[in-house]
Amino acid sequence: MTSSRVPGRIRGQLGDGVAGVLSQGVTAATSLLAQLIAAVSLGLSQYGVFAVLLAMLVGVNALYIGFVCDSFTVFDRHAPRCRAALVCAASLLIVLFTTAAAVLALTFAGGGIRSAALYAALVGCKLVAETVRRLFVARVAFRALLFNDVCCLVVTALALASLPTVVWSPTPAVLFGSMCCGALATVLVGLWQLPAVEWRGLRPGWTELPRLAEFAVWRALQSGLRPLTLLAARLVVANVVSTAAVGVLELARLVVAPLQVVINGSGSLLLGKLAARERGGDRRDPRSIGRAAWSLAAGTVLGGLLSATAAVLLAPLVFGRTVDAATVFGWVAYLAVWAAGLPYATELVTRRRARAVFVPRLADSLVGLALATSALLLGAPVAALPWSLALGGVYAVYRLRVLVESGSESTVSSGVCDERQETAPAEEAESHSRRTPHLPGGAPGSGERK
């Protein structure tokens, strides 16, 4: 490599990194836009219903990403048997989750069959859209991902802007329909950008599915624990207190919601980088993971405190309601604890040790949910919920850190999807050679490319 080419490669690396961060910002803005309109236009009770249904969407999305999307990021998605197993898993989960969404909407929201159908359609479109998005992450094509997410934001905004001309008073179902338009835009624009090798010739197959599940089940359970715990917490609040109390809780969470999306996006970016490094056989450096954990947690605390302070002052102007400061700061603490453990969990996942991540995360969820439920049953204010969930996560951070730093268990290949196509498509091979990143011992996600 000539020295004159190094600056260009560094610029390309920085460009991908900036595009990845901006992409998460755009995703956060899209979600925040819909939630802001819901918070302003819906009553507290209806907003509580919207929050519970949105929580289920986030939960099933996390399960799907953990099982399907993380699997095709870590393994070879072009190996024929692995590809067939991934298609089979994706199809089964989409049918299962859309059916569950329709049932929840019918039993909890009470909006009728039309409302349930709209919500189920949103869940299905969102899962397909997330598949398309994660293909860009697996290809380390963050600039294309950014363009895709910008298109989603524009279409969602246009759909939401048209609401006053279509309906007099928005409902959760109408808002979900607008979000569905953005998800469809993600799919169409993504398929237009992706090379045909990524989406043509998709056929389901059962042969490799059991072996794929050895990794994917644990990864999906681990990924889904946090959003499903939050869904359970909202349902507890709705039953112990009221759906209006869920609305109060969600107004406080909405203040720091962009931080949550950025944290999740940082995890996705880190997973792509670390998975590429693992495939390349690079030496692991637990110190770099530790620095990533401290940086992410510190950034979350700083950003959360600034957002919380501004929100307490500005919420009456934006929402027409006040937000509870103790609840907002509780959500900041919860996100900081989660951010501190995310780099350690991601490192273990790239070693295909998803089961090792699941156990402390399960303890985190059960303890936090038990503390929150007990506090509410004893008459504590709703502000106790995020603080209880944060306390439950402290052990998980400690345990994940020990697992990464000990290195007591070597990476064990499950044998699934390890075979390579003898004649991989030239376009994909060229793209992989250009895009495969490394993660040196410095700041996480700042590695040079080959």
TrEMBL record:
Membrane in keyword set: yes
Keywords of this entry: Membrane, Transmembrane, Transmembrane helix
Residue span of region Disordered: 411-450
Keyword Transmembrane attributed: yes
Bilayer-spanning residue ranges: 21-44, 50-72, 84-106, 112-129, 141-161, 173-194, 293-319, 325-345, 366-398
Name by which UniProt lists this protein: Membrane protein involved in the export of O-antigen and teichoic acid
Protein species of origin: Actinopolyspora xinjiangensis
